Amino acid sequence: MKADVIVIGGGTVGAAIAYGLAQRQQHVIVLDGDDRDHRAARANFGLVWVQGKGTNMPEYQLWSRRSCERWADFSKGLLDITGQDLHLEQKGGLVFCLGDAEFEARRTTLQKLHNQLGGEPADCEMIDRSELERIMPGVAFGSEVYGASLGHRDGHANPLRLLSALHAGIQRLGGTIVSATLVEKIQSNSSGFTLGAGLENYVAPRIVIAAGLGSQKLGALVGLDVPLRPQRGQILVTERFVPILPLPCSGLRQTREGTVMIGATQEDVGLDAATTAVAAAKLSTRALRIIPALATATLVRQWAGLRVLTPDGCPVYAQSESHPGAFVALCHSGVTLAAVHAETIAQAVIDGSLPSSLDVFHQRRFDVPEAA
Amino acid sequence: MFRKLHDPGQAALRVYIDGVAVPAEAGESVAAVLLRQEAVWSRLTPVKGSKRAPYCLMGVCFDCLAEVDGVGSVQTCLTTVQDGMRIARQRGKRSLGA
Ligand SMILES: Cc1cc2nc3c(=O)[nH]c(=O)nc-3n(C[C@H](O)[C@H](O)[C@H](O)COP(=O)(O)OP(=O)(O)OC[C@H]3O[C@@H](n4cnc5c(N)ncnc54)[C@H](O)[C@@H]3O)c2cc1C
Ligand code: FES
C-alpha cells in the first residue's frame, strides 16, 4: 500500500496528526500496533490543561496554551465531520491545596513558572477557601481544604470520544487506519520509506513515528534516538451522580455522564500496568479529604495506564537528519495538545520541516552532557 | 405481572414504594416486591432516562437500583425487605448526599 504520509501509531497523538494531514488533502495511512500494546490514549484522565505545565521549559507552557485556545474550533471541526460531541468544557480548572503549606508551595511553583515566561500575562491565580466555595456552590469541602489554584484556560473533554472521533474523521476524509499492524522494519531509499509489518509492506515519502512507548525502538531505525520511560497512572471511577463538580480539578473531575474520576498516581514501575489496592487507598483518601461526602460513592472501576515520558517530561518533535522525511512526535499530554498536533505538526510534515519555534522540542536537548 | 403464590401469613410485613404502602414477606428481596407492582420499573437510566426493572436478580446487572431508606443506587435484588422500609424508584443519577 502507498500513501503520501504514513503515521505509525493510532493513539491520540498519531491520530490527531493523521487527522490534520487528511484535512489537508494528504492521503494518509495509520498503522496501529497490537491490542496488547500499552496504550495511554485509552487510559487517561481527559484534562485539557495548561496550569503548571513547562517549568524549566516555558515554551511548553505556551504551546499548551495555544492548543487550549485552538481546542474549541478543533472540537467543532470534529463534530461537523463525524457528528461526535467531545464533551469539551473550558470554564477553568482547579488544583486543590490541603493545608497552608500545600497552598504556599503551589503559589511558589506557579510564580516560578510565571517568572520564566518573561512578561506573558498569568492565566492562573491562587484562590482561598471562601472564593472556592463561591465558585463551587453546593460542594461541601473537607476541613483541610485551604484553597486552590485556578487556571482560567483549563478544562476537560471526553478522551475516548476524542480518540473515536479522530479515527472516524481520518476515515471520513479518505484516510486509512490499519489496526493489528505492528511495524517491525523501516527501510529507506531515494523515493522514501518502506515499512514492513508482518507480510505486508507500506510505502510513503514521509513517515511520522507517534507510537507512544513503542517509538524508541522505531526511532532508532531512522536516526531518531529518543529516550522514553513509562510512568504508571491509576484512576478510580465512581457511579454516576447528578452534577456536583462544576469545574474539573487535577485529580478529580466529573464527566458529562456523571461519573467522578479520581486519579492519577505517578509510579515508576516499568512496563507494569497492574492496578493495586495501595493506589486505590491513596487516591480515595485524598479525594475524601477534599470532598468527604464521596465516602458513600460506589466505585465502579479502577484502571492503570502508562504515561509516555521523555526525560524532562516535555514533548519531542523532530525530523531525522540522517533520514529526512521521518518525523517523530511524542508527548505526555496528548489530549491537551491534540489541537496543535492536528494543525501545526500536520502542516510541518507537509512542509517537510518543523517551524523554528519548535526547535526547543528537538530531542538533541538530551544529548548535551550533564555538567560535572 | 408477577404475583405471590402463597399467603405469607405470620411473615407478612409492609414497605413503602414511592410513599405507597405495599405488602411484602420477611426474607424476600426488595426487587421481588418491585416486580409485583403494576409499575414494574425500579429506576430511570442516568443518561437517556429510560426505564429499567430488576433483571438478573443476582447482583450483576445493576438494573434494579433504587433508593432504600435514603441511600441511593442500592441493588434491590441484594437487599432484604424490612418492615416499614422506604423505597423510592431512582430517577436518574444519584445525588451525592443520598
Ligand atoms: C493515567 C494517565 C492519565 C493521563 N491524563 C491525561 C490528561 O488528563 N490530559 C492529557 O492531555 N493527557 C493525559 N494523558 C496522556 C495521554 O493519554 C497521552 O498523551 C496520549 O494518549 C498519548 O498518546 P500516544 O498516541 O502518544 O500513545 P498511545 O496511546 O500509547 O498510542 C501509541 C500507539 O502506537 C501503537 N504502536 C506502538 N508500537 C507500534 C509499532 N511498532 N507499530 C505500529 N503501531 C505501534 C500502539 O498500539 C498504540 O496504539 C494521560 C495518560 C495516562 C496514562
Ligand atoms: S437485578 Fe441485576 S443487579 Fe439486581
Taking the alpha carbons of the first and last residues of chain A, their distance comes to: 50 Å
Average predicted local confidence, pLDDT of chain B? 93
Q: What is the CA-atom radius of gyration of chain A, in angstroms? A: 21 Å
Q: What is the number of E strands of chain B?
A: 7
Structural class estimated from helices and strands of chain A: alpha+beta
- Any guess at the CATH architecture of the largest domain in chain A? 3-Layer(bba) Sandwich
**Strand order across the largest sheet of chain A:** 8-2-1-12-18-17
Mean pLDDT of chain A: 95
Q: Please, what is the CATH homologous superfamily of the largest domain in chain A?
A: FAD/NAD(P)-binding domain
Level-2 CATH architecture of one domain in chain B: Roll
Shape of chain A: globular
- Please report which band the strand proportion of chain A falls in: under 5%, 5-15%, 15-25%, 25-35%, 35-45% or over 45%: 25-35%
What's this model, at a glance?
The complex is a heterodimer of chains A (372) and B (98). Chain A has 372 residues and is of the alpha+beta class.
Detailed description of the structure:
The complex is a heterodimer of chains A (about 375) and B (about 100). Chain A has about 375 residues and is of the alpha+beta class. Chain A folds into 2 domains: about 5-80 and about 160-230 and about 310-365, FAD/NAD(P)-binding domain, CATH 3.50.50.60; about 95-155 and about 230-310, D-Amino Acid Oxidase, Chain A, domain 2. Chain A is about 30% helix and about 25% strand. Chain A is built from 8 helices and 18 strands. In chain A, the strands form 5 sheets. In chain A, strands 8-2-1-12-18-17 form a 6-stranded mixed beta sheet. In chain A, strand 1 (about 5-10), helix 1 (about 10-25) and strand 2 form a beta-alpha-beta unit. The termini of chain A are far apart. In chain A, about 45% of the residues are buried. The mean pLDDT of chain A is about 95. Chain B has about 100 residues and is mainly beta. Chain B has a domain at about 25-90: Roll (Ubiquitin-like (UB roll)). In chain B, strands 1, 2, 3, 4, 5, 6 and 7 form a 7-stranded mixed beta sheet that branches. In chain B, a hairpin with a 2-residue loop joins strand 1 and strand 2 (about 20-25). Classes of the chains: A alpha+beta (about 375), B mainly beta (about 100). The interface of A and B includes residues 239, 240, 257, 258 and 297 of A. The structure holds flavin-adenine dinucleotide and FE2/S2 (inorganic) cluster. The site of flavin-adenine dinucleotide has 42 residues of chain A, from helix 1, strand 2, strand 13 and strand 16.
